[in-house]
Amino acid sequence: MKIEKNILSLADQYDTFFIDVYGVLYNGFSLYDNTLETMEELRKLGKKVIILSNTTQVSEDAKRSYEQREMYAGTHYDKFVTSGEYLHYILTSKAQEISKNLGKKISSVKCLFMGNASVFADSQIIKTESFDYADLMYVGVPRTLYGRVRIDNLLDENENPVKIEDVVHCDWYKLHDPSGRKGPMEFAAVLEKCLEKNKILLVANPDMFAHESDSTHKIAPVFAQGILGKYYEKLGGKVIYFGKPYRGIFEFAKQFTEPEDKIVMIGDTPWTDILGANNANINSAMVMTGVAGEFLKDEKIPLEQRFEALYGEISYRVSGQQEGSNRPTHVLEKFAK
């Protein structure tokens, strides 16, 4: 597949650009070089730019967060749509969709929280800290007692490095980092308790990992909410997901477009961004940065070969998707010029 330089090479082909944040615009510490200029140029060309993110923040909170990085609505993009905002919309406007999955009216649901609960404002959800009384478990940003869990330095019981694509298939009780910290075990213990109590997990960010920076500004892949959902499913538990790759969030974002618009989704993750675009029957462009770049670090291998490797065994090991179900329409070296 031909690999284009950046998003401007596709500008003439589309009216609306749905754009992921992490791995496309943002590297876990800062915006990629020339990101703001490129977004502004798209809008000057008359294109509609809609941020479509799996963050569990509601849209206004996400907008304020990126204003601190000088990314502004009306200048760099038109709308900021998040999976947290979509979940909030469902809970406050279409609660029957959650009720159908739970088998009871939304007004009777109690929720045991892990993390920020802003998506539940003005809803019928009641907070509880008790496993016994909770009907479902909302999964927030995964943090252990010592913070975020890095995936790139996990070791198994034999002190062998664990590949990122194999993490969800491992026994988390046997994983640790070089300092001996057993962060995944904390998650496993909570999930097993949820399973024992027959709780449903509610996951508003299906991403399995994301890039974050530590105190030294080193950027590394860390656990995200979706990996807890996948592990819970492996244990035999039920999970309700909101966000990419599920069609609902794309339909929610389309309300800000015109029916005749030709839309393309730009993302870095085959099993959320690209598969989601395919599910929504829109075109897609995958950037070879972010999550894709995490698996494609050997610069001695041509980029085309690295792309094909990603869409072979790696993609299958991570997501269980058969090759071809999540291939993009276009491939870009990066988003920005």
Count up the helices. Answer: 10
Output the CATH class name of the largest domain: Alpha Beta
The major beta sheet can be summarized as: 7 strands, parallel
Write the CATH homologous superfamily of the largest domain: HAD superfamily/HAD-like
Widest β-sheet, arrangement of strands: 1-14-13-12-2-3-4
Gyration radius (Cα, Å) is 20 Å
- The 3D shape can be described as globular
In the CATH hierarchy, the architecture of the largest domain is 3-Layer(aba) Sandwich
Give the mean pLDDT. Answer: 91
As a percent range, the share of helical residues equals 25-40%
Order of SSEs? EEHEHEHHEEEHEEEHEHEHEHHE
* Count of discrete structural domains: 2
**Given the helix and strand composition, which structural class is it?**
alpha/beta
- The termini sit apart by 20 Å
Uncertain stretches: none
